[in-house]
Write a structure and sequence with these properties.
Helix content: 40-55%
Strand content: 15-25%
Order of helices and strands: EHEHEHEHEHEHEHEHEHEHEHEEEEH
Largest sheet: 7 strands, mixed
Radius of gyration: 20 Å
Number of strands: 15
Structural class: alpha/beta
Shape: elongated
Distance between the termini: 26 Å
Strand order of the largest sheet: 8-7-9-10-11-14-15
Length: 324
């Protein structure tokens, strides 16, 4: 039986920046009366649903009141929702977003009102943002993509191959681009010659399927699709099935349940980078409590990625060792 246990936290901090909770209005409140502002980029993706469900469960255990706003995949919508939470005088702000670069002003308002900001799902924020937040956790986008490319290089070498022609289903954000570049670099760093035929900007499964159909027609010699999200990869997979082109491989990112089910069917969906949104959410709750208790902690908290493939769940260490 394949194991699906996700990798344990990689809590070694990327920076030595640490923080001590100041004696502000949050610190002075009873923890059980805490009012949390929570905003995610969208609940259209299972990754964020798992994160939301876990956070809400943990908040209920701690008797916290949570006000949630959904960004609905739109920077302005999410920004306005966070502004409403600031105006509502929440005690703690928790954000998971693709649009962190656009939030400097509202995060500065949080600082001015002594509202600590906790970021889930993105540790690679610009310096001007890092100065305004108390904490950030998540999978390292480039490193996780590189891990996927490392696994893929071993997979190709086992087939006697040293080159690949591919297309990526990527998004417009720097985080998504880092996942794509990491995947390509992971293969080239391990001796695979990579030709990227096209990079498709997609945000939904339907867009990825349409782009996949285009790629299969435009590039008849394409050999691999890589999606920087589960929806991107699953859409590309749908295109290969619909066109009866299942010789074209697919590799994904996120580790959503549907991906794992498809991989278990032993078809052309080779594997996926696995994340742990439930662990990210529960870890964030843990660090909010550390903040309330006045504990000192590192600002950046990486969460380990892994790989799910026909062998089951692999840790980053297992993937790196097998590729040597």
């Amino acid at each position: 039986m394949k194991k699906r246990v996700l990798g344990i936290l990689g809590l070694a901090a990327l920076t030595l920046v640490s923080m001590i909770a100041p004696a502000n209005r949050v610190y002075a409140k009873e923890e059980e009366n805490l009012k949390i502002g929570l905003s995610f980029v969208s609940l259209n993706f299972p990754y964020y649903v798992r994160m939301y469900d876990t956070f809400m469960e943990e908040a209920e255990k701690n008797n916290w009141e949570v006000s949630f706003v959904d960004g609905n995949l739109d920077a302005t919508t999410q920004l306005n929702g966070i502004q409403d939470l600031v105006n509502d005088d929440v005690d703690v702000m928790v954000i998971s977003t693709w649009y962190i670069d656009a939030m400097e002003d509202v995060l500065q308002q949080c600082v001015d009102k002594d509202i600590p900001v906790f970021v889930i799902g993105n540790t690679e924020n610009p310096d001007n943002i890092n100065e305004l937040i108390q904490y950030a956790c998540g999978t390292e986008h480039y490193d996780a993509g590189h891990l996927g490319g490392t696994y893929m290089s071993k997979y190709l070498k086992d087939q006697g191959r040293d080159s690949i022609k591919m297309a990526t289903m990527v998004g417009s954000t720097e985080q998504m681009k880092a996942r794509a570049q990491g995947f390509v670099d992971g293969m080239t760093d391990h001796g695979i010659s990579v030709e990227v035929l096209n990079e498709y900007d997609v945000s939904t499964r339907e867009e990825a399927m349409a782009s996949g159909e285009d790629a299969l027609t435009t590039y008849p010699d394409i050999e691999l699709f890589y999606g920087v999200s589960a929806q991107g990869a699953l859409g590309a997979y749908d295109a290969t099935v619909g066109a009866n082109r299942t010789e074209v491989m697919v590799f994904g990112y996120d580790g959503e349940d549907e991906e794992l089910e498809v991989i278990d069917e032993d078809n052309n969906y080779v594997g996926t980078v696995t994340q742990a949104p439930d662990v990210e959410a529960s870890t964030t709750v843990e660090y909010i409590k550390k903040y309330l208790d006045g504990e000192e902690f590192d600002k950046i908290v990486p969460i380990s990625a892994g790989i799910y493939c026909d062998e089951g769940q692999l840790t980053a260490e297992e993937v790196e060792e097998s590729a040597k």
